[in-house]
Design brief:
- This protein has 100 residues and is mainly α.
- It has one domain.
- Helices cover 66% and strands 0% of the residues.
- It has four helices and no strands.
- The longest helix has 26 residues, at 2-27.
Amino acid sequence: MAGDVKRDRKRAAMDRVAKVQEILRRWDPIGVHPGKLAPADEYDSYAPHIVSMVAQGCSQEQLCTHLGTVRTDTMQVRANRERDWEIASEIIQAVRGEAV
């Protein structure tokens, strides 16, 4: 029984990560069209940390700021707060199952 619970929790966590990966591919801040011009997993490495942030209760503002930092500091591309805000909302809804 305990093994089933652990397996179910792991599956649920992996499902949340997969949902966020899909959203990040649409976010596409560097404009590489993952799966077309770049590997499909171009942004996947950011998903686990983002899922963790949302699961720990971060606000849409905090997630938007994180996305903006990833965009400008890590990827070195122009800021787009409006797009980051939209994506933060989508991510929170996907992970928590609630509208923001």
